[in-house]
Specification:
This protein has nine helices and eight strands. With about 220 residues, the chain is of the alpha/beta class. The protein has two domains: about 140 residues, Rossmann fold (3-Layer(aba) Sandwich); about 70 residues. Strand 6, helix 8 and strand 7 form a beta-alpha-beta unit. GO terms for molecular function: hydrolase activity; metal ion binding. It comes from Halobaculum halobium. Keywords: Hydrolase, Magnesium, Metal-binding.
Length: about 220
């Protein structure tokens, strides 16, 4: 029986109104490096981000991205511009806050999100979600981020729950689903339209049906 539920944040409970490609381009422009638009793409950003999951900010991410290029831009300015762009573009998935509140009447509910402390904290401030969960964990404050088992161990400790009594709900097949499954948690894969669930997922749900369908899914795990 499931007694606790952990959630991912980005692209699970909240999504940007604009594409992340556009948000990165906007940040490069606002941060003083418009000439890198196109040269620094989303794939390069994700690779650099993965190398700095436990960082306090995105400054080392942009330092890595700038290193191959002869530009005057300051990685601090770029990190600030990207944080502002991503944060202010975020909107909750329909019914997400109400879903979490309702689940807390039955389960312990936590958040485990990958990213720098400043960036993810800014999102929670903007959404007003610091008090939405029983326990909140940001990879920048942890020894490792998802999919590392240590990240899920921190969540389980905060939830005061065993792995087999805990479900993790997230959109990323590697970080959220394979990582949680390897740590012994049950898993619910949140899918974009037309998406396919990871083989490790115990269940899946369309993102736009998350609030409507997740309670019954949890009861069936």
């Amino acid at each position: 029986m499931i007694r606790a539920v952990g959630f991912d944040l980005d692209d699970t409970l909240a999504v940007p109104e604009h594409s992340r490609v556009r948000l990165l381009a906007d940040a490069l422009d606002a941060g003083g490096a418009p000439e890198l638009t196109g040269a620094v793409d989303r794939a390069a950003y994700l690779d650099a981000h993965a190398n700095h999951r436990t960082a306090d900010s995105r400054v080392p991410v942009f330092e890595e991205l700038l290193a191959p290029h002869d530009v005057e831009a300051d990685p601090v300015d770029l990190a600030d511009a990207y944080r502002d762009a991503v944060t202010t573009a975020l909107v909750p998935v329909t019914g997400a806050r109400e879903l979490v509140s309702a689940l807390r009447e039955t389960y312990r509910v936590g958040l485990l999100t990958n990213g720098p402390v400043r960036a993810q904290s800014a999102k929670l401030d903007y959404l007003g979600w610091w008090d939405a969960f029983d326990t909140t964990h940001i990879s920048g404050d942890l020894p490792a981020g998802k999919p590392d088992e240590r990240a899920f161990a921190a969540l389980l400790d905060g939830l005061e729950s065993d792995p087999d009594a805990t479900a993790f709900v997230g959109d990323h097949p590697e970080e959220d689903i394979r990582g949680a499954a390897a740590a012994g948690l049950r898993t619910v894969h949140v899918l974009d339209e037309g998406g396919e669930p990871a083989p490790e997922a115990d269940a899946s749900v369309a993102r736009d049906q998350l609030a409507a369908d997740l309670p019954e899914i949890l009861r069936g795990l």
